[in-house]
Design brief:
The complex is a heterodimer of chains A (880) and B (64). In chain A, α19 runs antiparallel to α20 and α21 packs across α24. Chain A is mainly alpha-helical. Chain B is α+β, with helices and mostly antiparallel strands. Chain B has a four-stranded antiparallel beta sheet with strand order 2-3-1-4, with helices on one face. Chain B is globular, with a radius of gyration of 11 Å. Classes of the chains: A mainly alpha (880), B alpha+beta (64). The interface between A and B is medium-sized, with 19 and 18 residues.
Chain lengths: 880, 64
């Protein structure tokens, strides 16, 4: 387990200078906003948003949770980790379980975690900290929210706002209006906004600031000119004050020049301020402007000066000097260790440094990357290396620390980093490409993932085992060849196994290849190894997969037991999302046992979890389809149709829709049960043109089984038998009893009753061991007939499960034809006359007529035209 | 201040919730026009950022 190193400076309310302009009107408005859910302070840079709220909240007799956001918080996982840390600064016991969830190898989506976060917020008690005032609320302040651009986080914040417990007051500081449905909050009077117009310094405030605090003694006229020119902009006034500090009598000249200038206020003022600094201060400002956060050691490192030998002011004194002189250096903690420049000021300094010396910027950033690396701040090191376009160093860092990084599950961060690499570089870095590919895949962006995996493909043999396995697995589940996958699985199986993750991947590969015995073998090994390693999180992931693999093998009792134990062991609500897979397996098991109630319970739990994650996964679509099957079996055919359509809708939202053909196989089964053979046949003809991609959620046997059913429905008995014999010969899987049962029906249709009985006995033997009833019930009335003739003890226990009085729509049934009848019908369908038929089949015309009458009766039609139409409707002979 | 923001893509009215205060109309060329009262620069940038997050192509921003 690895926790991301949290920067304590981000969750510390910014320390304030002793002397600030009081802003009583604004404070009063903030104080009165007790009935508002949200306080939004929105204004462009330099209007004093942070200062205002820090100043006001410092005077509040209630808990203040502060979080200063930065661009790296665009990862929902990291965002949540910091949000919780900010609250923990006031309530140390808060959200510990959620933090544990965030450290899972593949943490759940933010939407899944938020409800539990809201529940815990609701239990917070403001008075436990504030003491006397029972009505006190807790301030949750997010500074620099404009740096968040990830829509998942915006959605999360919208959810938080909608469900905000009454004792929490959310305060957001941003340069631009966040997309949080502000209109609705305004309309319901739940929003206090402080905007540019509110934050502007009035003439009186400007006077207090310039004359009392900065000690300038300017005339009212000069102040008024400054105020007009800067439009009450705090940063502008502060820069002006700095520029004026040493001007003495020239102050007036400067103000007049300034007011008369058309140049951008900021450029003008920064130039003035810099020009007045001694050279060493000026250099220091420009060079350290590349740093997002700075302390004296980091400054020494990037300036390559040693604190003890340096003749000039050491960085420590320099920082103290800048902070004291209001040079836009803000302390980030109470002890004066970490600082940052005001964002606006840093941007201007950086632009100036780049203009003076283009290479200086990247040289300084490279040094910052090295320093952070030495300190173990890997994310910062990677950020600086990428900023410096030092791709080799960034790659080196990513490769060395990939395990830690990917375990944190911050896939959004990985994607941001990916976007900063040039494509040419990634083409030479297979390990990086695989990891980035995995991150995109996890986020459902398979098109990009596939491109990245293709980059790594030529280097496949040079990758470490677990990574090449992962690559092979991903490539296989994205329409590549199975032969290659098989080759890699064989090679990997012969290597010494030290990595439980590699073992579980090997298990999953074998499952895709259709080898369920081997899949369970490797997954069990993975489980044992992870237990020996004591890696709880890996063990959890492996257990969730193992349950499914046991089910795929057809070991229902074993799978059931494991799934129940897993659910009991990982019962915390925060782990619920991981248990999704376990609920699907249980749903399937109970369907096999015909316990529709339990099956529905587990499937609905899964659907709830998957829907809440707001993420259309294969799980959501396959589970909805499974529920459709449950409903079909329990006699709610209409609901089954609706659910099936919904499941297919989910699958269509995949990009590309690789799960679609698999789901449609279940749909085909539903059609067949309703006698819509023609629809099913047309679907199959379409399918043959589409590529089939292996699925995590379906076994390859399922496809062959449905195809065999379709063939049988079309009376193509021999072709069906050929497939079913193939299916029953391979290693046993979930579908083996169904395959034998269908084979029995096919043999029966063939007229081979001894083979039919043999197949039925095998099906019953296999099914009895695991109490599997669904494979027989799903085959309906023909199977019921066959079972009544069987003396197998399990057959007798199955019979009561069939519907008592089966009301069949005769029109939807495919009649049983004799081979000769089939020949005649085929020729009718092809448009031949009676005479032609008689000639072709060497029959007497009267015999042909007799056959035709029998056919009309079996097809429930009156004439030849209707017979042809009915043949097409039933999908007969469409292959000719 | 009333702004008129034109983007290249055709946005249907389902996007109305994305752009709270703005009315969505379409031009004959198939572009989309977002028009409405935006009180200050922070509000305007908020709208522009939403356009960026949706991957829209900005054609023009006018104060009318």
């Amino acid at each position: 387990m690895s926790s991301p190193p949290l920067l304590v400076t981000k969750i510390t309310p910014p320390p304030l200078r002793g002397n600030l302009v009081g802003r009583p009107q604004l404070f009063a408005r903030l104080d009165e906003a007790t009935d508002k859910k949200l306080i939004l302070v929105a204004a462009t840079a330099g209007f004093g948003k942070t200062t205002l709220i820090a100043h006001w909240s410092q005077q509040q007799d209630r808990p203040v949770c502060w979080l200063a956001l930065d661009a790296s918080d665009n990862d929902p996982i990291r965002f949540l980790a910091y949000l919780i840390a900010a609250i923990q600064a006031q309530f140390p016991d808060f959200g510990q379980a959620i933090l544990t969830t965030l450290q899972l190898p593949q943490p759940p989506k933010i939407d899944v975690i938020l409800p539990s976060l809201v529940n815990q917020l609701a239990t917070l008690n403001a008075t436990s900290v504030a003491g006397q005032n029972g009505l006190a609320s807790i301030l949750l302040i997010l500074d620099d929210l404009h740096l968040i651009t990830n829509p998942d986080i915006h959605q999360g914040l919208t959810f938080l706002l909608t469900h905000l417990p009454p004792q929490i007051r959310l305060v957001l500081l941003s340069r631009s209006d966040p997309p949080l449905a502000l209109g609705r909050l305004r309309a319901s009077n739940e929003l206090l906004e402080l905007r540019t117009a509110d934050l502007r310094f009035s003439l009186a405030e400007a006077t207090t600031f310039l004359n009392n605090i900065m000690g300038l003694q300017l005339t009212e006229d000069l102040i008024s000119q400054l105020e007009t020119r800067t439009e009450g902009w705090a940063a502008g006034l502060q820069l002006a004050a700095l520029a004026l500090q040493n001007q003495g009598d020239d102050a007036e000249t400067l103000v007049r020049q300034f007011s008369g200038s058309h140049r951008f206020v900021l450029d003008y003022l920064v130039e003035e301020v810099l020009a007045q600094q001694p050279e060493d201060v000026r250099r220091f400002l420009l060079q350290t402007a590349v740093l997002h956060r700075l302390n004296s050691k980091l400054c020494d490192a990037i300036l390559e000066q040693h604190p003890s030998t340096n003749s000039g002011a050491a960085s420590q004194q320099m920082l103290a000097h800048l902070a004291q002189n209001n040079l836009f250096l803000l302390p980030l903690d109470q002890v004066g260790a970490w600082y940052r420049y005001h964002h606006l000021f840093a941007d201007l300094l950086l632009a100036r440094l780049a203009a003076e010396d283009k290479t200086a910027v990247s040289t300084l950033q490279k040094r910052a990357a090295r320093w952070h690396e030495q300190q173990g701040h890997i994310s910062d090191a990677i950020d600086y290396a990428l900023a410096a376009a030092d791709y080799d160093h960034a790659t080196e860092l990513l490769n060395a620390h990939m395990n830690t990084i990917s375990q944190r599950g911050e896939t959004a961060t990985l994607i941001t980093w990916h976007n900063r690499f040039p494509a040419e570089h990634l083409a030479t870095q297979p390990r990086l490409a695989v990891q980035f590919g995995l991150a995109f895949g996890t986020n459902g962006r398979w098109q990009t993932a596939e491109k990245l995996l293709a980059l790594a493909k030529p280097y496949e043999n040079e990758l470490p085992t677990s990574e090449s396995l992962l690559l092979a697995y991903l490539v296989a589940s994205n329409r590549q060849d199975m032969t290659q996958l098989e080759k890699i699985a064989t090679r990997a199986a012969s290597l010494p196994q030290q990595d439980s993750f590699a073992l579980i991947v090997l298990g999953l590969i074998n499952s895709i290849l259709g080898n369920q015995q081997a899949a369970c073998h490797w997954a069990t090994q993975a489980y044992e190894l992870s237990q020996r390693e004591g890696n709880l999180m890996d063990t959890a992931t492996i257990l969730f997969h193992l349950g499914r693999l046991l089910l795929f093998r057809g070991s229902l009792h074993e799978a059931h037991e494991l799934c129940q134990t897993t659910l009991a062991t990982y019962a915390q609500p925060e782990l619920a999302p991981l248990a999704t897979v376990t609920h699907v397996s249980l749903g399937r098991i109970f369907l096999e046992w015909l316990d529709f109630e339990q099956a529905e319970h587990h499937l609905r739990t899964t659907i709830g979890l998957a829907e809440r994650s707001g993420f259309v996964t294969g799980i959501l679509s396959s589970t909805t389809m499974l529920l459709a099957e449950v409903k079909q079996m329990s006699g709610e055919a209409d609901l089954a149709q609706q659910l099936a359509a919904k499941a297919i809708g989910y699958a269509k939202r995949f990009d590309p829709p690789t799960e679609l053909p698999w789901l449609e196989l279940s749909q085909v089964q539903l059609w067949l049960r309703q006698g819509k053979v023609g629809t099913a046949v047309r679907w199959q003809q379409e399918q043959e043109k589409r590529p089939w991609v292996p699925s995590m959620f379906y076994l390859p046997q399922f496809r062959t089984l449905v195809e065999a059913r379709l063939l049988l429905a079309q009376q193509r008995v021999e072709a069906a038998i050929e497939r079913l014999v193939g299916l029953t010969a391979v290693s046993p899987s979930l579908y083996t009893p169904s395959s034998f049962a269908l084979l029995a029906l096919a043999r029966h249709a063939q007229g081979n009753s001894s083979h039919a009985e043999l197949a039925l006995t095998q099906a019953l033997d296999l099914a009895q061991a695991e109490n599997r009833r669904f494979p027989f019930l799903a085959l309906g009335q023909p199977m019921q007939t066959l079972l009544t003739q069987s003396s197998h003890p399990f057959a007798q226990t199955l019979l009561p499960g069939f519907p008592k009085s089966k009301i069949q729509n005769p029109k939807s049934e495919i009649p049983a034809f004799t081979p000769r009848e089939q020949d005649v019908l085929r020729l009718i369908a092809a448009g031949h006359t009676n005479k032609e038929i008689a000639t072709t089949l060497t029959l007497a015309p009267s015999t042909v007529k007799w056959y035709i009458n029998t056919l009309y009766s079996k097809l429930h039609v009156q004439n030849r035209r209707q017979a042809i139409a009915r043949t097409q409707q039933l999908g007969l002979f469409t292959d000719h | 201040m009333t702004y008129e923001i034109k983007v290249k893509e055709w946005l249907d009215t389902t996007y109305a919730s994305w752009f709270d205060e703005l009315t969505i109309t379409h031009t004959v060329e198939g572009n989309t026009q977002l028009k409405g009262l935006l009180v200050d620069q922070a509000a305007l940038y908020g709208v522009l950022e939403r356009c960026r997050n949706l991957g829209l192509t900005l054609i023009s921003v006018n104060l009318v």
